[in-house]
Each structure stands twice: as structure tokens, then as C-alpha cells.
Amino acid sequence: MGYDYALVHVKYTIPLAGLLTFISYPLFTRLDVVRTLFIVTIAFTATIPWDSYLIRTGIWTYPPNAVLGPTLYDIPIEELFFFVIQTYITAQLYIILNKPVLHAQYLNSPATLPQWIKTAKPLGQLALFSSVVLGAWLIAKEGEGTYLGLILVWACSFALLTWTITAQFILALPLACTALPILLPTIYLWVVDEMALGRGTWAIESGTKLELKLFGSLEIEEATFFLVTNMLIVFGVAAFDKAVAVCDAFPDKFDKPADALSMSLLRARVFPSSQYDMERILGIRQAVTRLARKSRSFHLASSVFPGRLRIDLTLLYSYCRLADDLVDDAETPDEAASWISKLDRHLSLLYKDPDATSAPLAAKYAADNFPESALSALDLLPSSLIPREPLAELLKGFEMDLSFSKDTFPITDPEDLELYAARVASTVGQACLELVFRHCQHNLPDYMQAYLRNTARQMGLALQFVNIARDIAVDAKIGRVYLPTSWLKEEGLTPKDVLANPNSEGAGNVRRRILAKAFDHYGEARDSMKWIPSEARGPMVVAVESYMEIGRVLMRNGGAAADGSGRATVPKSRRIWVAWSTLMTA
């Protein structure tokens, strides 16, 4: 009896697993629990027969003075724990690195699959099949290549199966989502294994190994083992995530979302890619791109929303952003007014029939009157889940923007400021909350839902005030001043003075007054967010706090680092910290 192997876990694997758990804890969902249990169970079950065979045939040995003693099928308890802890570590790293990624956008049908993926998949199959054949040859040959052969036949057979059914999805994902969860744990475990082999905690029988070392005491067989097993873990979790993505991307095909853990998830696993609605997937891709480009704070916050809610929030934001861009990018006021009129007409057609049978009419109108790049945002607006009123009010806010001219500044007093913010931001907050009510299970009575809608409107005011305070210089470049004229007058300024010098002391004083009002509204609404359904509460708080952090920086410094366009911003590392710490306490 000894403690050497147990100490390997105490010193190296358990602390790393604990660190990853600490990082992922506020992000962890019920689906992540199932995802982890799924891959740990498969890995544990698949490895026991193989490892037991190695021990019983004397290929793999453990000195009696290095292990505690209890075994299962001749496998020491420490080794059994290694199956679990390695899988857990790699799965946790995969989950953390994949949180920012909306997996649905990486689905492809055979018709839309990039050529390089079409080429890479069979090459991967060939490489894995060749590895199995090589392994079988080494086993049949017996002698020094036996252990490597057993690794290749066992691991690459499973990898070939997983690759065959999931390669198109795995290859489409960013490398950071797949390569890093394979390589980082592999390198770490190489170092741990090298130290253990050097101390004699475990050993490979001479005559069954190639006697080649990657570095130090690390046998090439052990290096291969950790590489291919971590590859198997990532492939397995990716296969699970593909089913999740399919289930969440196509609500018309699957009545339950993935996090409901229903039969829909199993059906999604075998749903043929030839039946994917690629217009919807391409629209989701465009929406994600628009979100990442236009709102880094909400893009970060969106990563912690549950699947279908995340998709619909992204599509809602894409619509709002598109509408704003159409108006802002118009070359003349008349063109901008025309876009508002067309957007209003589109909404009228979309909401004409409560049974949504008018959607084809709206789609046809959009195709006839909007640029092709706008069609997906218009067609994929989740109108069946959102009332028309907030979106119609948003367009009225855009109409207020058109009131600006070189001699006209419509924000004359704080009441005008509140009205504008209510139309362009409170409306979006309310629409987001409607999606939360529709997607999340809750037992909120009608009066509580009405109360939360009011809270959303209050918080919308707070966020828009921060936005206005942040973008004084940016808005001045396009001839707009959202600072109340009455407040400017108290500072001895006019809107034209702000256009000429948006960074003046007087403008800074008005900025601070707007920020004070922002935090007043925030303070009134923040505590009420505890009543938001639990699935969305944390993510909604993250969305708010990520944006309010900009306001805090402005309050402390009177400005923040700029991103090159004159727009104040907060470093990504700080936004991540705010999001993580917020989720820990939400």
C-alpha cells in the first residue's frame, strides 16, 4: 500500500479540476451538468475493459507501494479516478471555451458545406482508419509496438465513429473551441505523466513499448494516449453539442428546447443535415456577426443565455440594429423617413394576422423594398413571441432622430430626453423581457409580469442614458446633441457649442447629470431583477451590469479608453470580470 498515485491527483489533477470548476461555476447550467455526465460516463465505461486488459496481460503495472490497494477488474482505484478526472478537466475546458459561441451558426447542410470541410472529413477518416490498421498490425506483430497498437485500435476506432457523424460540425467550429481543449490538457498531463513515470508511480512493461521518449521520461505511447483520449473527449462533447444546436435552431421541427432534456434532443442527434433550414442558419450567422460588431457588451452577455432564448434575443437585436442602421446610414432625411415608413409597413403586415399567416406577405414586401442584406433580419424577427407595440415605438424614436438639423435640436428638456430613451431603449428592454417570459418556465402572475415590464423600461432608460453620456463626441460628428438644451443653457452652452467642442467642461458637467439620472433609474430597477425567471436572471443581470460598467468608468474618469472611433469603451478583460463576478452573485 502506498500513496504515490493518490498524491498525483492531490497535487496535480484535483487542483486543476477545482480551478476549472471555480471558473465555470457561474456559467454552469443544467445542460452543462448533463453534458459532463454524458461524456464522463461514456469515457469511464469505454476505458475500463481496455485498461483492465492492459493490467491483466502485464503491459501496464503499478508497484504495490504506489497505490492504495482497492481495485475494480484489477484497475487501481486511483486509475479509475483518473478516467473521471481527465475527462472532467477536458470537458470543463471545452465548455468554458465554447460559452461565447452560438453553435447553431456552425450547422451546415450538404449544399452549403465549404469545400475545405468536404475535403477534410474524408482525410480525417482515412487518417483514423489508417491508425486503426497500424495499431492492428502492431498488435499482430507483438513485441515492442504492442502497447501503442492497443492505444491506436481502441481510441481511433471510437474517434473514427465520432468523426464520421460529427466532423462537419467539429471542423466548422473555431479552432479555439476544439484544438485548445485538446492540446492544453494534453500538454499538462504530459508533464504530470513524465514526473510520475520518472518516480516509478506506474510503468510500461519492457518489450511492449518502443522505448521512444517525447521528452524526459515520457514514453511516446503515453504521449499518444493523452492526445487521442483528449481528442475523443472533445469529439464526444462536440457530438452532444451538435444535437443541442440542431434542437435549438429549429423550433418548428422540435417542440422542446435542448435544455428541456426531452426526446427532442435524441431526435436532433439523428436529424438529417439535408433537412436543415439553411436560410434560418445563414440568418443566425448574420445576426451574430451584427451583434459582435455593434454591441460588444450584449454580445458578451448573450453567451450565458439558454439556447433558444439566446437565438431569439440575437435575432431581435439584429432586427433593431438593422433598423437603426438603415435610418442612420441614409444619405438624406427623406431617405431615412422612407426607411422608417417601410419598416412600419413591414410590421403592419407581419402583425396583421395573429395566426402569423401574414408572414409570407411581410416577407414578400421585404424582398421588394429592402436590400438583400436586410432580409434575414426582417424575416427572422421572432414576431410570434413579441407584441408589436415595442417595435412600433422604436420606430417613433427613429423619427425623433430625424428631427435633428443644423438649427433644430429636439431634446430641449429632461422630459424629451426620457421620451427619446423610452422609445429607443425601453422598448428593446421590454421586447427582451417578453422573450424571457415566453422561453422560460415561470409562475409569475400577470401583475408581476406587468411590474417587471415596468422594470425593463426603467432599466432601458438607464442604459440609454449611459449610451448618450458615452457617445457625446460620436453623436456630435453626425450633427446630433442628445444633451437637454435646458441643461446646456445652465452651463452657458448651446447645442451648437457642443457640436464645436463636445469635450468642453460644460458638456462634461451635463454628462455627469445624465449619468446621475442613469444610476437613479438603475437603482430603482436593479433589485426588481431578482424576480426575473431564474434561467434568464443571471444573463439579464450580466447584460445590464456589463453596460452600466461603462457608466461607472465614465463617472470615475469623466471618460474611458476609446476604440479609435471616439466611442468610449471598457477593456474586454474588465467586461469578462464584471460578467463572471455578476453571475457569481446573481
UniProtKB/TrEMBL annotation:
<dbReference type="GO" id="GO:0016872">
    <property type="term" value="F:intramolecular lyase activity"/>
</dbReference>
<dbReference type="GO" id="GO:0051996">
    <property type="term" value="F:squalene synthase [NAD(P)H] activity"/>
</dbReference>
<comment type="similarity">
    <text>In the N-terminal section; belongs to the lycopene beta-cyclase family.</text>
</comment>
<dbReference type="GO" id="GO:0016117">
    <property type="term" value="P:carotenoid biosynthetic process"/>
</dbReference>
<feature type="transmembrane region" description="Helical">
    <location>
        <begin position="36"/>
        <end position="55"/>
    </location>
</feature>
<dbReference type="InterPro" id="IPR044843">
    <property type="entry name" value="Trans_IPPS_bact-type"/>
</dbReference>
<feature type="transmembrane region" description="Helical">
    <location>
        <begin position="146"/>
        <end position="163"/>
    </location>
</feature>
<dbReference type="GO" id="GO:0045436">
    <property type="term" value="F:lycopene beta cyclase activity"/>
</dbReference>
<dbReference type="InterPro" id="IPR017825">
    <property type="entry name" value="Lycopene_cyclase_dom"/>
</dbReference>
<dbReference type="InterPro" id="IPR008949">
    <property type="entry name" value="Isoprenoid_synthase_dom_sf"/>
</dbReference>
<dbReference type="InterPro" id="IPR019845">
    <property type="entry name" value="Squalene/phytoene_synthase_CS"/>
</dbReference>
<comment type="pathway">
    <text>Carotenoid biosynthesis; beta-carotene biosynthesis.</text>
</comment>
<dbReference type="Pfam" id="PF00494">
    <property type="entry name" value="SQS_PSY"/>
</dbReference>
<feature type="transmembrane region" description="Helical">
    <location>
        <begin position="170"/>
        <end position="191"/>
    </location>
</feature>
<keyword id="KW-0472">Membrane</keyword>
<protein>
    <recommendedName>
        <fullName>Bifunctional lycopene cyclase/phytoene synthase</fullName>
        <ecNumber>2.5.1.32</ecNumber>
        <ecNumber>5.5.1.19</ecNumber>
    </recommendedName>
</protein>
<keyword id="KW-0808">Transferase</keyword>
<keyword id="KW-0511">Multifunctional enzyme</keyword>
<dbReference type="GO" id="GO:0004311">
    <property type="term" value="F:geranylgeranyl diphosphate synthase activity"/>
</dbReference>
<dbReference type="GO" id="GO:0016020">
    <property type="term" value="C:membrane"/>
</dbReference>
<dbReference type="InterPro" id="IPR002060">
    <property type="entry name" value="Squ/phyt_synthse"/>
</dbReference>
<comment type="similarity">
    <text>In the C-terminal section; belongs to the phytoene/squalene synthase family.</text>
</comment>
<keyword id="KW-1133">Transmembrane helix</keyword>
<feature type="transmembrane region" description="Helical">
    <location>
        <begin position="223"/>
        <end position="240"/>
    </location>
</feature>
<feature type="transmembrane region" description="Helical">
    <location>
        <begin position="123"/>
        <end position="140"/>
    </location>
</feature>
<keyword id="KW-0812">Transmembrane</keyword>
<feature type="transmembrane region" description="Helical">
    <location>
        <begin position="12"/>
        <end position="29"/>
    </location>
</feature>
<comment type="pathway">
    <text>Carotenoid biosynthesis; phytoene biosynthesis; all-trans-phytoene from geranylgeranyl diphosphate: step 1/1.</text>
</comment>
<feature type="transmembrane region" description="Helical">
    <location>
        <begin position="80"/>
        <end position="97"/>
    </location>
</feature>
<keyword id="KW-0413">Isomerase</keyword>
<dbReference type="InterPro" id="IPR033904">
    <property type="entry name" value="Trans_IPPS_HH"/>
</dbReference>
<keyword id="KW-0125">Carotenoid biosynthesis</keyword>
